[in-house]
Automatic annotation (TrEMBL):
Name assigned to this protein: Arc-like DNA binding domain-containing protein
Domain Arc-like DNA binding positions: 6-46
A GO molecular-function annotation: DNA binding
Stretch list, region Disordered: 46-71
Native species: Erythrobacter dokdonensis DSW-74
BP GO terms, sorted: regulation of DNA-templated transcription
Amino acid sequence: MVAKKAFALRLDPALHDAIQRLADAELRSVNAEIEMLLREALARRGVKVERSSTAKRGRPPGTTGKGSDHA
């Protein structure tokens, strides 16, 4: 999985609240919503950002999550 760069971001509380409402409506986290908004803003300015290949969510193939093969 590709590591994401973490950093502190200070936001005006009203801006954070607005982003939270958008995120809730889109069933995203605030972090994912901010990332989406940044990608959209960059695209409008003609800046193309390739998506990194990240691991898919969920269990790896072949795992059932029920019990264990170990005794």
